[in-house]
Amino acid sequence: MKLLGIESSCDDTAAAVSQGVHLLSNVRSSQLGHQAFGGVVPELASRAHDQAITAVVERALSEAGVTLEELDGIAVTLGPGLMGSLLVGLSFAKGLAVQTGYPLIGVDHLDAHKMAAWVGTEDQDIPYPYVALVVSGGHTRLEYISGPSSEDIRLLGETRDDAAGEAFDKIGKMMGLGYPAGPVVDTLAQTGDPNRFSFPQSMLDQPYEFSFSGLKTHLRRFLEDEYGIVSGLEQDELKHRLGDDLPDLAAGVNVAITEVLRKKALDACEHTGARTLVVAGGVSANLLLRDTLATSCNEHDIALHIPPIDLCTDNGGMICRQAYHLVMRGQHDTPLEPYARQWMRDSR
Q1: Distance from CA of residue 102 to its chain's centroid?
Q2: Is 235:229 a contact under the CB 8 Å cutoff?
Q3: Ranges of the chain with pLDDT below 70
Q4: Model's pTM, two decimal places?
Q5: CA distances from 208 to 255, 272, 344 (A)
Q6: pLDDT digit string (tens) for 157-168?
Q7: All domains of the chain, ordered by start, with CATH?
């Protein structure tokens, strides 16, 4: 079965082609125009998707060596995400589905992130039950997943304010690292001393809930008191004031955020009895998080599944894999009814 997967939930226009559980191509076009604004501007994002999506899909088909006529279905992200961005991908996919008569498979964005860990793996080989840590710029949540159906997903807890990726970006912006700052913090931290600065790790007394706004406030006050950093300073001035301390500060921030994620994910496995942990979303590309989770899971005899780096951020490959999972279970929408399969994530 050959599927075309389209992803446009935020600021990456992505498409992929798969055959079964294997990827034949995986193409992504990232938008750079948001850097000047310090975050994603929804209107600019949707316009950029509209400009890029045709070329991205054509390239995905070309790299896979597959023509439109050779496909068996079209998959597309339904949400959650930015409304305008989602509509671009969905409208494009609906048009292709109407043109070709192929089935249109609507995919939940967060479910697709989790399924990225199973690219190349058949459904019957997925070891239920497992705990999923979904951690990105828009989401930080723990789920207990006991089976292949959406009814088998139980929300254990999530962030009460900022997501982990959002915290990385906002704190990095305070430090003059631009946007997106998360990957820059991770890179700088590799050369910094993680023990020099100790920043608070929040809500460790709550097993499944997260909160990162307190860390953000603490860093703002710390940077003002220690370095005279206040709102309105230019990026170059921020870096100048932090000077050689920047790698050590980045390392301290990296530890403060990733340790909370690691501890709560391990606690969730212990409390639920699950012996498998799946980590998904853009922050799962963080090197410290990957290393410390690998060590802890090995010590506690927990199987750890994290997607390869190129499948951690938004991509069409994860959409293809989740769509294949839905097709194998007989769950997919018709071309003119993309919302036929309703899901209420808040009720999980």
Answers
A1: 28
A2: no
A3: 31-39, 332-348
A4: 0.89
A5: 19, 11, 20
A6: 999 999 999 999
A7: 2-116+311-347 (3.30.420.40), 127-306 (3.30.420.40)
